[in-house]
Each structure stands twice: as structure tokens, then as C-alpha cells.
Specification:
By secondary structure, this protein is an all-alpha fold. Helices cover about 65% and strands about 0% of the residues. It is elongated. The two termini are about 15 Å apart. The mean pLDDT is about 90.
Length: about 55
Amino acid sequence: MFIVTITVIIYIHINKQRDAAQREAPERGDVNKYTSQELRKMGDRALDFRYTL
């Protein structure tokens, strides 16, 4: 149970970082930087990927 709790906390933290990065992307000019196919190939490294349990 301890491991699951830690995993959830880490996932929440990572998802918050990705949310912030997506909000800031238009300011940096990074809108539509990758095609949907490229994002799919990136897997969990894609900015729009969210961890869930």
C-alpha cells in the first residue's frame, strides 16, 4: 500500500508539471510543435500524456 501511495503522489506531481508546461507553451511559441503521430511515438514523454491509476 505504501508503494501505491508514493506512486500516486509522484503521478500527481508530474501531471501538475505537464499542466503548467502546456499552459506556458503558447507564450513560448510551442503550440502545435509536434504532430499527433509524433506525440503518439513519444509515449509517456509527450507533454499531453497524463498518468492515471
